[in-house]
Specification:
mainly alpha; 11 helices; globular
Length: about 325
């Protein structure tokens, strides 16, 4: 069956939109909210390690290698509980560890910059005094060198302790999820569709078992412009949730509240529950997408209000 050109175009546009969304958001919000590329990289690294490595290893053992747990999780309700909690435990533990380290770095950097600012003021006074009495040799250059070093420290500034750090991390964590689970997978299906339209897919996937090849053909036959819209909805909602969870975790870490970890795990599990219910065949797709669309709109509205309040404070601090 040939995948219609309109479907391919919609899928390509949807994939492109999802791919550039976190990048555009970072570039637009970097200055007003003081985003740091280091926070974004931290989010990417945590998702790659805890979601794509640790969680997959855990699922492989629990769902396949361990016969006892695999038999127990054959029950749909048990599978839903495990599936929702597994992602929450792995991702939120990684987020918690990363943000604890980020908080220590932020507070330590603040102290360093405070000392640098004091040194800058002291060296400025010394430089003023040196213009009155010229020292011998190159001693006059010492205050200038120290002042220059202090200015460089102040210019780069500390890692922010404000909500912009959570947004930067969330864009990294959620952006990595968008790319690894969404964009790259969607590109694969677009390539398969193009090859199938040329009648070469069976030859291209000659080493794939016949049952798997049949499933690929069935998925390609189900592709439609509506599926492209669902893809955008699900991926954008996932990014919104990741930013929201990052802000929740950051505020808890900033307050020094250890209870934020179990709270974030429960929140993450509740967010994943509709998708797991769909995988277990207990909830239809339209209901899942309706839940995620409604919840994402609410979370996005709250995030916009919070970050709008944070923007003037960040600009004044700069």
């Amino acid at each position: 069956m040939v995948v219609a050109p309109l479907t391919l175009t919609c899928l390509a546009l949807a994939t492109l939109f999802v791919a550039v969304l976190p990048i555009v958001l970072y570039r637009r919000l970097r200055a007003p909210l003081g985003l740091s590329g280091r926070d974004v990289v931290s989010g990417i690294a945590v998702f790659a390690l805890f979601a794509m490595v640790i969680e997959r290893v855990l699922n492989g053992y629990i769902l396949h290698q361990n016969e006892t747990t695999a038999a127990w999780l054959s029950n749909p309700l048990a599978f839903v509980i495990y599936g929702a909690l597994a992602a929450g435990v792995c991702e939120e533990t990684g987020r918690f560890i990363a943000m604890r380290l980020m908080w220590r770095r932020a507070t330590g950097a603040s102290a360093t910059v405070g000392a640098a600012q004091a040194a800058l003021a002291l060296n400025s006074d010394a430089h003023t005094e040196s213009t009155r009495i010229k020292p011998a040799g190159n001693a006059a250059g010492v205050p200038r060198a120290r002042a220059s070093m202090a200015r460089r420290t102040v210019k780069w500034g500390p890692t922010s302790t404000g909500d912009g750090t959570a947004l930067g991390y969330g864009l990294g964590h959620g952006g990595a999820e968008l790319w690894i689970i969404g964009v790259l997978v969607q590109i694969q299906w677009i390539v398969f569709a193009v090859i199938d339209n040329r009648g070469q897919l069976d030859t291209y996937l000659g080493n794939v078992p016949s049952d798997s090849l049949m499933r690929i053909h069935l998925i390609l036959a189900s592709l439609s412009p509506q599926m492209a819209g669902i893809f955008v909805l699900e991926r954008v909602a996932a990014l919104v949730f990741q930013i929201g969870l990052s802000l929740l975790m950051w505020r808890g870490v900033r307050a020094g509240w250890l209870g934020i970890l179990p709270l974030a795990i429960v929140a993450h599990a509740l967010i994943d529950a509709p998708a797991v219910l769909f995988q277990a065949g207990l909830l239809p797709l339209y209901a899942v997408d309706g839940i995620y669309a409604s919840l994402a709109l609410i979370v996005a509205g709250v995030l916009v209000k919070l970050f709008r309040r944070a923007a003037p404070t960040t600009q004044q601090a700069a």
